[in-house]
């Protein structure tokens, strides 16, 4: 995307760095809330993440952009609302207004296992170290760690607290007893 | 008992390390109160009225003697020398220090125990009949299915932040509901299909608390292979659509009620259709492996029935205990023995450090080294040979664990209440004690027969007051403790929710009210008619009249 400057702006909820696929990288996406879009127009260039309602209302214009577009789901907005559009999206963000609201875990899982969405699934909002492992297992591969927390520590300690899991997940659907032979060598 | 594989043990050890780090970050100020709250709750740690309370998981109530000894030592070293058996078959410590909890967990992990998901808005301990595996009339042993559900629910990444807590119970008895599955978020009934294969009826949306309701039948027959897929389907529907705005409307029972059972079933079946025959499908090999952990112990062929008959003739106190506190076993040479933790003057479910250790020794000598916690806050030794009963009874009596009141009026179920719990509106322990003291004539209590009194200190209903034949609920009225009485609840067949009598009472009135209720029953009962049958025959009015008239 050739952005020289750091596009991070924590005041408007877009952090400078994010965890993607197990590494900390510069954030390439700018996320816009419904409130922001009431007053401001989208910038001409750059990858943007927009709310579901905005996407549905402006689909054609958004698809005509040169740069990538992602959609952010709020709790209560399910992947089903976006199902037909998923092949055209590079990223789906799932917003956690509070980390205790676990709906997004089911949404991520559905994106991966029901809709076979292969793009980036990004957790945004109240995203903290102690939830990353579960989030990763249900299909998130990108995390905007809350701005007041140490993203390095979150990456270091949040993604691998367990080497053992009983259930299958989006990475390996087999339950532990079918993985037993693999575990012996682990 | 389930035998841990290397991976089960490694998981526990990784959990201890994770929780130790979370505690460290909390104490260092790197985690807020609110963030740590959720993490510690998922580990059974509440901050209570006077101190933290740690709830230790006892999967479907099963404890080995080695585990009892560890619980005894932990109770002595980290607590004040006593613990409580909870109504979900767990063990609670009331005085541990927050900073000691990681060490307690490490000690527990060494004997394959933990506190995972004993609290918080996640899938809690799986419970079942305390006579599982020995009850003559069960379809099959439900414990392998409990263990299979336990593993699926443990650290399930999708269901750790549910709208509210989630309780699953399994029952394998056809005409009774000893696991009270009717009032669980999910109740699993083990049944046999027409081809003789194991399957399940799956009930959902039952619960006590503020809105007591009996669950609805959602899955009429789920073949055993698909048990986990079916449960996952229900959980996903609940996780997506359960109410998250109001915690009093967040349990699955509210969702099932709001949608209606048919609509809920439709949503669950749609999820199930996608999961069915997928990787969650249980294999014969894995079910066989888990069943192998719950095989019969090595029962003696020769049991001296005459010795038991003799002791029953010779000793009246033993005779009484035998008839109230021991129950039939599928092996005719054996009985299941209940250790009643309900001695007058003690907190219901109370057990001391040294009692843990002595029970462990007795279990090794008399019951193949195992005991079970019951949801009535007692313990069971499930496999005692009939000719050992007299010797065991004398030892239990010396320990204060042979009060012959199982299922009788003084076998009261009560939550810790306002003496210990910060959620409570009112005390429950002194109410229980008051009733036990009033009805101190054992002959009279035996004559009254089966009678469940359940006491909860608030409407979270930890004492299961809704399903007591007589239920007592602590309520707060302008800062004063009052008690509301319900009659006619039952948790024996399919659960039934008790009916409110009328205006509530002050604490000093409760014992008198209970006595009036009992007197009405005694006046009205037919020969050999238990309290609950009398109530169902004559209804609320005569009781109401005797109390308010």
UniProtKB/TrEMBL annotation, chain A:
It holds the Pfam family DUF934. It comes from the Bacteria. InterPro entries: UCP030820. This is DUF934 domain-containing protein. It comes from Alloalcanivorax gelatiniphagus.
UniProtKB/TrEMBL annotation, chain B:
It comes from the Bacteria. Keywords: 4Fe-4S, Heme, Iron, Iron-sulfur, Metal-binding, Oxidoreductase. SUPFAM superfamilies: Nitrite and sulphite reductase 4Fe-4S domain-like, Nitrite/Sulfite reductase N-terminal domain-like. Residues 53-111, 332-398 form the Nitrite/Sulfite reductase ferredoxin-like domain. Residues 119-273, 411-547 form the Nitrite/sulphite reductase 4Fe-4S domain. The keyword 4Fe-4S applies. Transmembrane segments: none annotated. This is Nitrite/sulfite reductase. It comes from Alloalcanivorax gelatiniphagus. The lineage of its organism: Bacteria, Pseudomonadati, Pseudomonadota, Gammaproteobacteria, Oceanospirillales.
């Amino acid at each position: 995307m050739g952005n020289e400057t750091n596009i991070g702006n924590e005041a408007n909820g877009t952090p400078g760095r994010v965890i993607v696929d197990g590494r900390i990288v510069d954030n390439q996406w700018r996320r816009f809330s419904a409130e922001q879009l009431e007053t401001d127009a989208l910038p001409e260039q750059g990858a943007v993440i927009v709310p579901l309602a905005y996407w549905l209302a402006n689909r054609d214009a958004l698809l005509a952009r040169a740069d990538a577009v992602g959609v952010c789901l709020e709790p209560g907005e399910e992947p089903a609302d976006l199902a037909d559009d998923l092949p055209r999206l590079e990223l789906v963000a799932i917003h956690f207004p509070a980390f205790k609201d676990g709906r997004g875990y089911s949404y991520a899982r559905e994106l991966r296992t029901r809709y076979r969405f292969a793009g980036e699934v990004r957790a945004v909002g109240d995203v903290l170290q102690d939830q990353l492992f579960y989030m990763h297992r249900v299909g998130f591969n990108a995390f905007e760690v809350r701005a007041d927390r140490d993203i390095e520590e979150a990456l270091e300690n949040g993604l691998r607290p367990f080497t053992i899991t009983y259930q299958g997940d989006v990475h390996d659907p087999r339950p532990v007893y079918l993985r037993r032979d693999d575990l012996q060598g682990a | 008992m389930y035998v841990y594989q290397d991976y089960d043990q490694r998981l526990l050890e990784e959990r201890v390390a994770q929780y130790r780090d979370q505690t460290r970050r909390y104490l260092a100020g790197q985690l807020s109160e609110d963030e740590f709250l959720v993490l510690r709750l998922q580990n059974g740690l509440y901050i209570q009225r006077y101190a933290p309370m740690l709830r230790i998981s006892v999967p479907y109530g099963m404890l080995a003697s080695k585990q009892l000894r560890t619980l005894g030592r932990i109770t002595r070293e980290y607590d004040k020398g006593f613990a409580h058996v909870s109504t979900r078959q767990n063990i609670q410590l009331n005085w541990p220090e927050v900073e000691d909890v990681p060490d307690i967990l490490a000690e527990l992990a060494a004997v394959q125990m933990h506190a995972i998901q004993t609290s918080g808005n996640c899938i809690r301990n799986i419970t079942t009949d305390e006579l599982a595996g020995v009850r003559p009339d069960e379809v099959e042993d439900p414990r392998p299915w409990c263990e299979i559900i336990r593993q699926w629910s443990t650290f399930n990444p999708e269901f750790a932040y549910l709208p509210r807590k989630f309780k699953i119970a399994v029952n394998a008895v056809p005409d009774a509901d000893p696991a009270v599955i009717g009032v669980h978020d999910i109740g699993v009934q083990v049944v046999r299909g027409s081809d003789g294969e194991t399957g399940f009826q799956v009930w959902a949306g039952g619960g006590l608390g503020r809105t007591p309701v009996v669950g609805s039948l959602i899955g009429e027959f789920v073949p055993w292979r698909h048990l986990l897929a079916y449960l996952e389907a229900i959980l996903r529907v609940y996780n997506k659509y359960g109410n998250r705005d109001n915690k009093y409307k967040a349990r699955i029972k509210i969702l099932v009620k709001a949608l209606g059972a048919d609509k809920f079933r439709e949503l669950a079946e749609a999820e199930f259709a996608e999961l069915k025959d997928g990787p969650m499908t249980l294999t014969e090999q894995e079910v066989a492996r888990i069943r192998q952990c719950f095989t019969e112990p090595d029962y003696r062929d020769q049991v001296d029935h005459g010795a038991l008959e003799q002791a029953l003739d010779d000793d009246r106190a033993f005779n009484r205990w035998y008839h109230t506190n021991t129950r039939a076993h599928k092996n005719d040479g054996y009985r299941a023995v209940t250790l009643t933790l309900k001695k007058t003057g003690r907190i219901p479910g109370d057990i001391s450090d040294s009692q843990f250790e002595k029970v462990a020794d007795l279990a090794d000598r008399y019951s193949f080294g195992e005991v079970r916690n019951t949801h009535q806050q007692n313990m069971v030794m499930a496999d005692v040979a009939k000719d050992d009963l007299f010797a065991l009874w004398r030892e239990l009596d010396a320990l204060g664990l042979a009060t012959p009141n199982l299922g009788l009026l003084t076998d009261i179920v009560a939550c810790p209440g306002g003496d210990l719990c910060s959620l409570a509106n009112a005390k429950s322990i002194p109410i229980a004690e008051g009733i036990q003291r009033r009805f101190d004539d054992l002959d009279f209590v035996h004559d009254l027969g089966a009678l469940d009194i359940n006491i909860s200190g608030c409407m979270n209903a930890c004492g299961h007051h809704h399903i007591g034949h007589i239920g007592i609920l602590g309520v707060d009225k302008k800062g004063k403790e009052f008690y509301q009485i319900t009659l006619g609840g039952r948790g024996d067949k399919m659960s039934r929710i008790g009916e409110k009598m009328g205006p509530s009472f002050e604490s000093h009135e409760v014992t008198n009210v209970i006595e009036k209720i009992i007197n009405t029953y005694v006046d009205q009962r037919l020969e050999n008619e238990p309290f609950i049958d009398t109530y169902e025959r004559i209804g609320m009015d005569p009781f109401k009249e005797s109390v308010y008239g």
